[in-house]
Design brief:
By secondary structure, the protein is α/β, with parallel strands linked by helices. The chain contains twelve helices and 17 strands. The chain folds into two domains: about 230 residues, FAD/NAD(P)-binding domain; about 90 residues, FAD/NAD(P)-binding domain (3-Layer(bba) Sandwich), CATH 3.50.50.60.
Length: about 375
């Protein structure tokens, strides 16, 4: 059986693309495992995400009911939990945008879907360092040529402020750690907020070091950007303005709610929590510095994407590769071949591309390209 498509990256972005390609829709069969090649370092789709969630002791997902890896949005995690527990509460919470699946439930879902989908039959342990366009499609670093390729390399790496390089007290929030008695936590997003509460619960005194006040919103980006109208407005903006919007969407945020605010207010009143606006002098006396500063940003920090841009002279804007609305690379996609991006590297097409919902958007566009290709 001929391999029809290749996925570079075996994390959640690649996994969502895989399940979307495998899914049978009305009038169309999904691809068989032998028709898909998945290249990556780890056969566990949650292999990168799992230890990061464990490091910050994350209990609930930030995503809602449709934050899952099944190819269709419905039924989501809330509906399936309601059936499993014979309880309507998850559905009612979902209607009010209040449903949050637990991390164990999400990971169990990934494990079960991995087993059923044929993922391991398609997985090939190989790190792809270069993608080169040729007459037959795309050569993947000597591992074969494929007509249709989706790149889902994930985040480039953990970000640590340059000022803290070499400081022996430093640990990144996404690395395994315990808590000292006096902790400085650098950052103001979801991971930082989670770590404030973790450290306080451990009995530590906490210094929150942040350059700006975080935005309070339930999801990674504003809810209108998950709608057709909001997305159309975003895509209509000129390149320079779009890049500015993306930078703004990437500013630190975490959800509103008393479950976050009350522990911080109590700790502040007792002198165990305070906020500092910069690194200079704010770390004095801290026994431990936790960098909840997320990931390096931009294609320039990903060697695969940097080579792709340089060797094919692709259009870019600031730290983003310019993509078509379906997350494909315009200069390398036509009626006979497809090169698409998914995950954080596809934010030019969908600002929330690094969410599970955003990964599905890229995956569906990739599938449509394959289905419309005469060489399929």
């Amino acid at each position: 059986m001929t391999t029809r498509a290749a996925i570079v990256g075996s994390g959640l972005g690649g996994f969502v693309a895989y399940t979307t390609l495998r899914h049978a829709t009305f009038g169309r069969d999904g691809l068989e495992p032998a028709e898909i090649a998945v290249f990556g370092d780890d056969p566990d789709p949650a292999g990168a995400w799992r230890p990061r969630a464990a490091a910050i002791r994350q209990k609930l997902m930030r995503s809602e009911s449709d934050g899952h890896c099944w190819p269709t949005s419905f039924p989501g995690l809330a509906a399936r939990e309601a059936v499993r527990k014979r309880d309507l509460a998850p559905l009612l919470l979902s209607v009010c945008d209040l449903y949050r699946p637990t991390v164990p439930d999400f990971l169990r879902h990934v494990d079960e879907l991995r087993e059923r989908s044929g993922w391991d039959e398609s997985f090939r342990r190989a790190r792809i360092g270069r993608v080169l366009a040729n007459d037959g499609g795309f050569d993947l670093d000597g591992h074969g040529t494929f007509h249709h390729v989706l790149l889902a390399p994930g985040h480039p790496g953990l970000a640590v402020p340059a000022e803290l390089a070499g400081d022996q007290r430093v640990v990144h929030a996404y690395e395994r750690h315990e808590y000292a008695s006096r902790v400085a936590i650098v950052g103001a997003g979801m991971a930082a907020a989670t770590e404030w509460l973790n450290a306080l619960e451990s009995g530590a005194e906490v210094i929150s070091v942040r350059r700006r006040e975080p935005t309070r919103r339930p999801l990674n980006v504003s809810r209108p950007l998950f709608t057709k109208r909001g997305l159309s407005s975003f895509r209509a903006t000129p390149p320079t303005e779009r890049a500015a919007l993306l930078r703004n969407y990437g500013e630190p945020s975490y959800p509103p709610g008393r479950s976050w605010d009350e522990p911080l207010e109590r700790a502040a009143r007792s002198g165990r929590f305070r906020v500092e606006s910069g690194l200079n002098g704010s770390l004095d006396g801290a026994e431990q510095v936790i960098c909840a500063t997320g990931f390096q940003q931009g294609f320039q920090n990903d060697l695969l994407l940097t080579r792709l841009v340089a060797e094919h002279e692709l259009e870019t804007e600031d730290r983003w590769i310019v993509l078509a609305d379906d997350s494909t690379v315009p200069a390398l996609t036509d009626a006979t071949r497809t090169l698409a991006l998914a995950g954080v590297s596809a934010q030019w097409a969908f600002p929330a591309a690094d969410t599970l919902v955003g990964m599905k958007v890229a995956a569906r566009g990739f599938r449509r390209r394959i289905e419309s290709c005469p060489t399929r």
